[in-house]
Every structure is written in structure tokens, then in C-alpha cells.
């Protein structure tokens, strides 16, 4: 429990407010803003090159995130006495045990390994891009000219695996080392964000930008542009729900709602300002190319970004073992076997194996799809897996919100009701449902239609990953249900 000064309630409350606010802000503002603004097919491209559409989507998602946060804050009181305040526990409590099991399986087998893989590969990929940009600007040649494309790909893949294993080993050897690394990287990660904010405005104001997103040609507005941009923007915001579980250690519960809501509002405003700054100096929305006219500054800027990406890999490596442990100990099959604890060695070994398998699968899919194109790309499946994961994650979020709203009717679980929360919850669920349906149309059906018309296999990446996640998750869920029923039947005989 956080408790620094019992004699001064105001100081305690202020401290706890700031802790929750900073944690909420820190969890959300991470690699997502870089990943989805790091290439020519990022958020701006998804919005039809229209910066106004892209900004509208950032604002809209910020509002929806705030509304979702209110629903989860209302339900968080029911989690105060739970040993594991994970999202799967929310799902079990407000929906049912089966949905809790589905949520746990998806996050353990698919989503967290996906995020860890993205972080590791994107870190190395961005590092090589930064060096590439510097070499091209100063010497007129790239890394490929010295090493060759295939050697570079192999080197990047090996380094990505080394990064993943090194950080996992660091967290295995010492929790303190992992936490210290996270604190340092979390502080440093605001340097490039501030550079983007101030540098973008300064470059534009000084007249050094001749063409940007606002004065470039963009496509005629289509509704599809809004929903295409939704997917990458939702990924950038993903993680804010995790901060709800932080309230468990807070003594003054009255600061929970305002702190978390303030945190997500600050994230939304910060993202909007960052996006405007990027669009002011870039015509393609690529944040990694903001300072390309200044090679040394650009290299330093991009290498700092690379360093801060360690926060994502480290955070998910640290969280993953805890999520695995919570998921296993809450698993009905293991409960029947009376298993009450799992060794640290087994947890970290499981995390490493799942992460490595995920990385190998993503790399294999990427290379098999792009190898004959003349430009092999090992990262493309990882990049689009973020969009695929969001298609599943927001269904999970929406179903849990539905369960929270249903609890208002049944009053089965005591919660801290927020004035107007029920109406806002209905509006939020309605918006999420419509968004999810349209995103599925664009992500799955529309991509399959485009492949049929163009024979471009890159359109199949998201559908393939979606079916892969579904098959893996469903298989594990059915196996788990089978084993649970079997052990219960054996014990009853």
C-alpha cells in the first residue's frame, strides 16, 4: 500500500494522484506512436494522406478511450480484494469464467508475445534505419551496399532475438534491474517526444519546411479512410485499460477516478499535439524522417527513440511472466489439480519459448510473403500483427463493458457507480460495436477482395494472421475445457 505520510492526508492524496496519473500516462505513451508513424503506410496513409481526417481520428479515439476508462473505473471497485487484478479477471467477474479463460489465453498466447516481438524487431529495425539514413545523407550509400540485403536481414533478425533474450534474462536475474531499466528508459522516452513537439513547430515557424502534410495533395475523402486510420490509432492508445488494475495499492480510493481520467485525457491531448507537429514538417507522416535535413541531429534523435523502445520490450517481458502466472493459477484445470504456485524458472522459460515461437512464426510469414517481391521484409507481419491484435483486443474490451453494463441491471457485483456512467457506457459500447464491425470488414473481407483483384499477397497478411490467432486460441481453449471436464469427472467418480 502506498503510504508516505499518515499525518498529512493532503500530501498522501496528492502523491497517489501523481503516481496513478504518471503510470497511466507512461503505460499508454510508448512505442505505438512511433510504430504507426514510422513509414509511408502509417496513420496518414491510412487516412488517404488527409491530415485533417487523421487528426479527427486521433481526437475521436481519445474521446472513446476516456469513455471506456470511465466504465472500467466504475467496475474497478469490485477488483480491490482480488489477488490478480488482470483483464482476464475482469472478464471472469463481469461476464463469465469462459470469457475470462478466452481473455487469458489470447493475452498469454497471442497478444503479449506479439507486442514483445514487435518491440524487439522494431527496436533493431529502427536502429538500422537510423544508421542507414545517416550514411545515405553523409556518404551516399546504405548498409546494404556494404553488407548486402540478405546479410543485413539475417543480422537484424539475430539482433532482435538477442534483444528479446537479454531483456528476459535481465528480468529473470533481478526484478530490481528490470525496474531500474524501466525507470531510466521511461524518463528518457520523453526526450524525443519533446523534440518532436518543439522541433516540429520550430522548423515550421522558421520557414525551413517547404512541403508538409497540410499543403500536400491528398485523396478525396472516403468513409473507409476514417476506419482504416482507426486501427493503427487504437493500437497507439492500447494499454490504457491496464492502468485500471494499478488502483489496487492506492490507499485513498477517491483519487483513482480523477487521476486515471486525467491521465488518459493528457495522453489524448499529447498525441494530438505530437501528430500536428509531425504533419507540420513531414508530407508522409514519418516521424523517423523529421530531421532528415540535419543528419547528425536525425541520427541522435532516432537512436534515442531506439533506446526508449527498450521500455516496451522490458515492460512486456516483465508483465508477461506475471500474466502467465495469474492466468495459470486462475485456470480451472489447474485449480482442480490444487496447483497453487509456479516456479520462477518455469515462468521465464515459458515466456522465452512463447516469445521465440511467436517471433519465428512472424518472421517466417513475412519472408514467405515478400521473398519473391525483390524486397524481402522480415518485419511486415509483425507490423500488421498489431492491427490484427487490435481486432481481437477491442472485442474483449467491448464484451467486458457489456458485462459491466449488465451488472447495473442485475446488481450482482457491488461497484462504485459514476453519475451518468450507464448512459456513457451504452454510447461507448454502441460506438465500439460499430467500429469493430467496420474494422473487421476492412481488415478481413476488403483485404481478401483486394487480393482476388490484384493477386498481391501482402493483402493476405492480416487475414492470415487473424485466422492463425483464432485457430491457436480456439485450439488451446477447447483443449483446456476438455482437460478441465476430464479431471472433474475423474474426481467425481
Automatic annotation (TrEMBL):
Which Gene Ontology terms cover its molecular function? transmembrane transporter activity
Parts of the chain that traverse the membrane: 15-35, 55-73, 102-131, 151-171, 183-205, 225-244, 256-282, 294-316, 347-369, 389-406, 418-440, 460-479
* Entries under Pfam families matching the protein: AA_permease_2
| Membrane topology listed for this record | Multi-pass membrane protein
- Keywords on record: Cell membrane, Membrane, Transmembrane, Transmembrane helix
The record's subcellular locations are:
Cell membrane
Main site of residence?
membrane
Protein name stated in the entry: APC family permease
InterPro entries assigned:
AA/rel_permease1, APC_superfamily
Q: Does the keyword Transmembrane apply?
A: yes
Q: Which domain of life is it from?
A: Bacteria
GO CC annotations on file: plasma membrane
